[in-house]
Design a protein that fits this description.
The complex is a heterodimer of chains A (150) and B (461). Chain A is built from one helix and eleven strands. By secondary structure, chain A is an alpha+beta fold. In chain A, the strands form two sheets. Chain A has a six-stranded antiparallel beta sheet with strand order 2-1-11-10-7-8, with no helix packed on it. In chain A, strands 4-3-5-6-9 form a five-stranded mixed beta sheet, with no helix packed on it. In chain A, a hairpin with a 2-residue loop joins strand 10 and strand 11. Chain A is rod-shaped and about 100 Å long. With 461 residues, chain B is mostly helical. Chain B is built from 15 helices and seven strands. In chain B, the strands form three sheets. Chain B has a three-stranded antiparallel beta sheet with strand order 1-2-3. A two-stranded antiparallel sheet of chain B has the order 4-5. In chain B, strands 6-7 form a two-stranded antiparallel ribbon. In chain B, helix 7 packs parallel to helix 9, helix 8 runs antiparallel to helix 9 and helix 13 packs antiparallel against helix 14. The chains are: A alpha+beta (150), B mainly alpha (461). At the A-B interface, helix 1 of A face helix 1, helix 4, helix 7 and helix 13 of B.
Amino acid sequence: MDILWSTLLFTAKWLFIGLIYLALLVVLLAVRREMGLQVRSRVQTPSTAAGRLKVIKTGSDPHLRPGAILALDNETTIGAAQDNRLTLADRFVSGRHAQLRWDGAEWWLEDLGSRNGTLVNGRPSPPHRQQPVAFGAMLTIGDVVFELVE
Amino acid sequence: MPERLRFVFRPLETLLLVIVMLLGGLGFALVTAAIQLRQETNPIPALSGALLPPAVLALALLFLHLLLQWRGVEVEQVILPIVGLLLAVGLTMIWRLRPPEAVWQQLWRGFIPGVSLMAVLMIYPRLVERIRRDWVIGISLAGLGLLIATAFFGVVDESGARLALKLGPLPAVQTSELIKLALIIFLAWYIEKEGEAVEGRARSLRWLRIPAVRYFIPGLLYVSLATLALVMMSDFGAVLILGALFVAMLYAGFETRIFLTVAAVGLGLSLLVGLVLAFTWEIPAVIQQRLAAFINPWSNAPLLIDGQPAGVTIAEGPGYQIQQAIYALIAGGLTGTGLGFGLPNNIPLAHSDFIFAAILEELGAVVGLALLAFYLILLLRILRVAVLLPPGQQFERLLLVGISIHFFIQVLVMVGGTINLLPLTGVTLPFLSQGGMALLVNLTEVGLVLAIVQRLEAPSP
């Protein structure tokens, strides 16, 4: 094998390795750049909410009955004030207490900064923070307890 | 909603694919020239024939690239070039290790059908939704049925394993590859469908939440049947992959950590069953051989069970394959001997299971590490798509998790086996190893990823 060919093969080998690393470099730079970008979903969420509230404990609200089923809107505000979608007359419910939101797949609960807080399965929900709620979860609002059912 | 399609440029993908095409052509030319020169012949006349396979690869990649641009997909320009690069390196190595027919076989049996399926999935991304709604039961039952049929009626290969099913005049089908994709699709559908019921009806025992067992039974039954069939076929690599997919997808699919506990209990139980089997029944000879080779790769004494040589796929002793792989790593060193200048064919099965050892010998650790980096980026990019999907699409998300874990576990097991960090298990390296069916399944999985990617909108800065 003459010197010309071996030089050529040596160069080609390093070109081969170089091309692989060039590709790796370009990929890494692109991945790094994309980390700062926001990618949104193309699909719009459907509009019908799937889910209802079942009354488990009525608290001091005289209008509620245990076992009753309450319908929910896509965005259901809950509180003592009359402009809420779901008005509760319990003593421990704040004016604007909590909100349930349907995103097309699951329910999200947000405590709207209520005085006595909102419990999900007995655990306090942090105020002004949305958290997903699974079907079957127990929501405690004031002294009233609901179960989120399908 | 009418689909709005407009042509978009994917400049990053174009640049990367040009690099990949150059790489493929260069690799094939380099291998051909080196082999001709070692036979003391003039390499120029052979070069033109050597450029045909990389041209097929380049044309197919260009086709997929144009398809994505025509579909107006702006996001995720990295996955396709990475797959192309792995394919280019893999085909180069097969060209080096095997006669040219092997490369053509890989192209016709695995690559071309795989690219066609990818194209169909990219043009009709709604097919993913169709699979979820209508076809999932058919696909999973067909996968399981074919696997069980193989366990009973499959063709026995030279190592004594029944891996392939031959139906009439059709070429033999490796059904153990199909079951992996079938399991991913089945589990994604099953967890989406029953997950809420399982979690919602979980009973609380203080800190421990016991999930409702009866919702588990169909899923467990499916996995157990597939595992049994694979054990009958003595394809333990596939058993490992199935188990890993099961645990990973359960973990990804449920919110409560109880399922990690369930998985751990399952693993513990299977270990127990394994131990009991080890004392009462006989461990399959393949596993004994692999363990012996893992513990002492330098032992050349053939493994004897009841005085008979057992599980002998390699006459030179259980450790021979790993010995040769270790010699290959040493010969390769940091930058390799150069394509065509090593002796990778000394390793048994260098073209399929041990292709990573062959790459390390001829291209060196630099290229080996770069390929591992590409695999890692591929895993992370697929998981990124899963994270960016809108909240409702649990099936698609689990599908992506399963696919990325499938790639990842294959790389982990095979690279670990090659460098003797794990007991050797016969699986293929995705996109690198020779194996038509494995390539077809892996390309279909990439097609699913690129179909689901189309649900993401272009990024805004």
